[in-house]
Design a protein that fits this description.
This protein has about 180 residues and is mostly helical. It contains 9 helices and no strands. The longest helix has 23 residues. It is globular, with a radius of gyration of 17 Å. It starts with 13 loop residues before the first helix and ends in an 8-residue tail after the last helix.
Length: about 180
């Protein structure tokens, strides 16, 4: 059980109920990842808007974004997030378990383009060591046709995943069977 109160869809009222209904329309169910934010409907709404923004991103592909989440979560040992995003890659992008293991171990995937792998590595390195980012790294990304928006959006995605992993790990979301 998580260390803070979470609300099942049957317990939800008011704004939380409205958000849960929107989540159900989008995903068919309210997952434990959403339930973690249920004690703060405004944070859950922000999380949902964040997810919708990236789900429709014009240049960052679903496999790249899921890879960012897997790699960040692997560093933070967030089992829930690793499993959730690995399943997404396996079921939606047709990756194999071996593809996921390579991604986690090498922060690289043959399933991604060279440019996506470069952006993935930038995000993971930046989340670990933000003070190491310099103009040369950014120029390399730009030389591969990544825009400032792409670079910012990708790193924001990784940084937000890092923050989410902290929440999930702190409140023991991985232990929650709901």
């Amino acid at each position: 059980m998580p260390l803070i109160k979470t609300y099942e869809k049957e317990e939800a009222t008011g704004e939380l109920q409205e958000i849960y209904e929107e989540i159900i329309k989008l995903r068919g169910e309210v997952g434990n990842n959403a339930k973690l934010f249920s004690s703060s409907p405004e944070l859950l709404r922000q999380q949902l808007e964040f997810i919708k923004y990236y789900a429709n991103h014009e240049t960052l592909s679903m496999p790249l974004l899921a890879s960012i989440r897997v790699c960040v979560s692997n560093q933070e040992r967030c089992s829930f997030c690793i499993d959730f995003n690995s399943a997404l890659l396996i079921n939606k992008a047709k990756w194999s378990i071996e593809d996921i293991n390579t991604l986690k171990n090498e922060i690289y995937s043959k399933k991604l383009t060279k440019e996506e792998n470069t952006l993935l590595k930038f995000v993971i390195d930046s989340v670990k060591n933000p003070h190491e980012v310099d103009e040369n790294i950014i120029n390399e990304l730009k030389a591969q046709s990544w825009s400032d928006k792409d670079i910012l959006d990708a790193l924001n995605h990784g940084a937000r995943m890092y923050a989410t992993d902290i929440l999930f790990n702190s409140f023991k979301i991985e232990d929650y069977e709901g």
